[in-house]
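User: Hey, quick favor. My workstation is busy. Could you predict this chain's structure for me?
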Amino acid sequence: MNILYSLQHLGYVIPPQADAAWLGEAGPGPSYLDPGSGGPENDFTNRNTTFMTWNLVHLARMVKAAGGIRVHGNQRSAWDGAAASTTLIQSTVSVTSVPATFEHI
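Assistant: No problem, here it is.
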């Protein structure tokens, strides 16, 4: 989780539930696709990977549709002097609708 926090602090956009991993039954052992590993049948790993992918794709779609993340409201110079209070009041956030399936992306 520290890596995700550090990345978002540097400016990366991290979707919800952005972590998924195959750890085997309890740590070291066969890789996900190795015969007999149980990886492809592991509901926990498959579910979390699907959630992570779904959220990543849809967050990317929203950011792209919005033209990226605007710098307005994220500039140090805007907070210097009296601009801080007016910038905060004038800033708005809008969320665009997201398609229900991946085929629209």
